[in-house]
Amino acid sequence: MRGVRRVVLLCVPALWALVSCGIPATGVVEAGGPAHGLVPMLRVYLVENGSLVAVPRRPADAVDAESAVMNLLEGPTETERAKRLTTLLPPLTAAPTSAPTPLASVPPTPGPSGGSVAEAAASAAVSVNARNGVVSIHLRYVSEELSDLATAQLICTAAEAQRTTDTGTGPGAEAVTVKVTNARGRSVEGSDERCPEG
Length: 198
Fold this sequence. Notes:
The protein has 198 residues and is an alpha+beta fold. It has one domain. Helix content is 30%, strand content 19%. The strands form 2 sheets. A 4-stranded mixed β-sheet has the order 3-4-5-6. Strands 1-2 form a two-stranded antiparallel sheet. Helix 5 links the parallel strand 4 and strand 5. The termini are far apart.
């Protein structure tokens, strides 16, 4: 009986120490979102000294041809301009008016579907579709013909993004075809075969 009493006497202080350690009993504590894997990288093609240059960017959303083209049309960032990178593409405008306003200066007011008016204007000015192995870019805000280098910026940027979204289109796979059409319906088609590596 004395052995049982000793075991009980030894267990009581240990149990008391565990109960009174200062950690309150709580339920599940929310501490942020789930862990994510690697953030995808996007490459847009800008111009440096008359040549195409692949420039890495970290997109806000998933990488696809449409998001890559819209990212490219925003033009170089301040950091990229400081490195003397530029674009030959006309700036994306909110609406074809006599004095176009760049989308960057349009205040983000809510549109009918919850998005901003600037986003709605951008999607009306540019459409990007990937179908049957061809990425089609329709620039409704551009009436003049683009230079070969400006067209190459679009082709290489869209094709690079399309490769990341399509399975089986890695570096050794067939070339990605991109068709660029302006507001007058004039089209230029090309592939990423001659795009510089990043």
